[in-house]
Every structure is written in structure tokens, then in C-alpha cells.
Amino acid sequence: xxxxxxxxxxxxxxxxxxxxxxxxxxxxxxxxxxxxxxxxxxxxxxxxxxxxxxxxxxxxxxxxxxxxxxxxxxxxxxxxxxxxxxxxxxxxxxxxxxxxxxxxxxxxxxxxxxxxxxxxxxxxxxxxxxxxxxxxxxxxxxxxxxxxxxxxxxxxxxxxxxxxxxxxxxxxxxxxxxxxxxxxxxxxxxxxxxxxxxxxxxxxxxxxxxxxxxxxxxxxxxxxxxxxxxxxxxxxxxxxxxxxxxxxxxxxxxxxxxxxxxxxxxxxxxxxxxxxxxxxxxxxxxxxxxxxxxxxxxxxxxxxxxxxxxxxxxxxxxxxxxxxxxxxxxxxxxxxxxxxxxxxxxxxxxxxxxxxxxxxxxxxxxxxxxxxxxxxxxxxxxxxxxxxxxxxxxxxxxxxxxxxxxxxxxxxxxxxxxxxxxxx
Length: 424
What we know:
The chain has 424 residues and is α+β, with helices and mostly antiparallel strands. It has 2 domains: 10-60 and 95-222, no CATH class; 225-423, no CATH class. 41% of the residues lie in helices and 15% in strands. The chain is built from 15 helices and 10 strands. It has helices at 3-6, 66-72, 82-87, 126-148, 205-210, 224-237, 241-266, 271-276, 284-295, 300-317, 325-345, 349-354, 356-363, 371-384, 409-412, and strands at residues 12-20, 30-40, 43-55, 98-107, 114-116, 122-124, 167-173, 180-184, 200-201, 214-215. The strands form 2 sheets. Strands 1, 2, 3, 4, 7, 8, 9 and 10 form an 8-stranded mixed sheet that branches. The protein has a two-stranded antiparallel sheet with strand order 5-6. Strand 2 (30-40) and strand 3 form a beta hairpin. Helix 7 packs across helix 13. The longest helix is centred in the middle third of the chain and has 26 residues, at 241-266.
């Protein structure tokens, strides 16, 4: 059997459609089309998304809701007050914002969506379907983000709760060319937003799928931590302070974990060593302890900032404290302080020399590294066949790195020096 005959194409064309309570454009019947990058597990997946505005939300949310009049005036038999006419009811033809979303992409390997049972019959594989749903929802989120990136409100990430009813997904495996359909399940709604994009007249949603009008330039998947940051911003714009505080803490924890991954690579950790050290299971305080011992300086203020973010999150989640804008702002400002502190530490030449990968990931060309170290990082990146430097330690196992990277721990900290205590 030849190599060609042995190869089995497990890819599948995927077409999905759903509706969301957001308006992509300001004119009904207009569409906005964009090419985005999403992911299926660790696989990078490009997708085309077309957003067709079914209703821009004209008149929706303006004036007094008629139901509130029933509940405050007519229910008690009061006379019709004059201020009711001045405030104005929502118009009878008012409609909420609504958008039809269509997208298509190629799934690299659909075979793990179903697994054989004891009788050899295929059954749904829930973890892989969650990856599949996340692939679709993340693509939609990226498209919505592109419609609002120039405006005051950042969109996304959306969830199953943003779907109006279940969506429908068409999967067409290359091996059989026989399509089948699955549901994209919806849950209770979370909220909505309207875009200020005018959009373009839509002949059909299919036209938008054939050619993206605006293409995003990024060739690398957006990091999970930036997804949490956007989620926190969105919740804050919706004035959902409890959710914004929780997302802010998650974003900061992902930020610190991201830096620890870079530090581990700088110290030559293999994937097995990374796991055996328990770095994935570290809590926020332990993770900050690793960062502070490696970044040096006086970490007191940064430590207090980390504790503030964590305390505010626990106050809302565990102690039932009322979430307020002030509580969110305190957590947000504290998180920014810690991020700025870590960035500034990695701009110090001595600290950057000890942690070249970590410094380069955060600062790229501004990282204060010697030409030899820059060349070493470039060689590592080239051998790993990465698209760009920001993808180092980004959703990739440490096994992609050589057994010992750039510098051994002893060389990193000077001759005869011990590796800092958190890595012992």
C-alpha cells in the first residue's frame, strides 16, 4: 500500500447558522462579512462569518415599557398621568435587535466527534463537541468584535446564552461526501448590543460567505487570556458588575499563568517537568510567588494588587457582597497595576537576560536582549515552525521546545546560583 493510499482525509466542511439578539449593522437587510481565526482544540482554523441584520432594533428600548405602566398605574386604578404621554411608550412596531449568523470553515479532523460504543455504534463524544461548539462561537465572537473594534464598546465573547433558539450545523466529511446535521444548543439569554456599522446591502447571506469584505490580519489564535479580558470589558459595559469582577480575576490569573509558562521555558522545563512541578495546578497566590521570585524587585505593591483582585472576586462569589462599579474599578485598576509591574520588570536588562523568552513574548522588539539571545530565540521559533513569536507558550505543549532552551537554570542566574525556590 502506498503512502497516498494509506492516507485517509478526515477533514470536513462545516456550515453553521444561528440567530443572535445583536444588530451587526444599522440597516435591516444589510450584512457584514469577515474572515477570522478560530480553533478546534489546539488546531488553528480559519473561518468566514457573515452577519445579516434581521432587525437593527429600531425603537426598541426607547420610552417606557407598556408593562411598567400596567404595573405602576393601571393596576391600582390611578388616572392616566400627564407625564406618561411626555415620556412616550415604546412604539407598537418596535423590535429588538436580531442578526442571522452564517459561517463556514474546514474541520481538520471530525472523527473524534463520535466514538464507538460496546456494540460498535457511534455515540456523541461530549468533550469534542464542546470544542466544536467553542470553535463556532469563538468565530462568531471574533466577527462581532471586528464590527465594534472602532467603537466605544468591545463585543464578546458570546456564549450559548446569546443564541435565539438552537442553531443548526451542517457537517460534510470529505471521506464520504454525505452531509449530516447537528444542533448548536442555546441556553438562557445574557444580553445584547447594537453595532454602529452601516453595513452593505445584502443580496443573500450566501454572498457574504463567498468573499469576506473585511479580512482580519492576525494569523495566530487569540490567547485565552485576551478572551477573558474582553469578557470583563463587555460585562462592565453592560454594568453586570459581578460577572465583570469574576472575569477580571480570571483574566489576571491567565496573565500570570502565561508568564509562568514563559519562565518555565526559559529555565529549560520539558513538558513532563512542567507537569511534575504542578505548575498547572498552582493557585493565584502561588503563581504570583513564582513570578515575584523570578522578576525580582520589591513585589509588595504588586502582591497587594493581586490580593485585591482575588478578594473582590471572593467577596462577590463566596460572601454574597453586592457587586458595584466601585468594586469592579478597584479590581480592574489593581489588575492593570500588576500587569504593568510585570511588564516593567521584564524591560530591565538583567531580568530580561535571565528570562529572554518571557521578555520577548511580552515586548517583542522592545525586549532588552542581546543579539545572541535574539538569534537563539529566532532559531527556536524557526525550528518549532511557529507563525509568530506571540504564539510561544500559547496553547502549545512544552514538548515543542528543545530539551533545554537558551540557557540552563544555573547559567540563567549566574554561576553557582540555585534556581529560585518555587522551581525547586
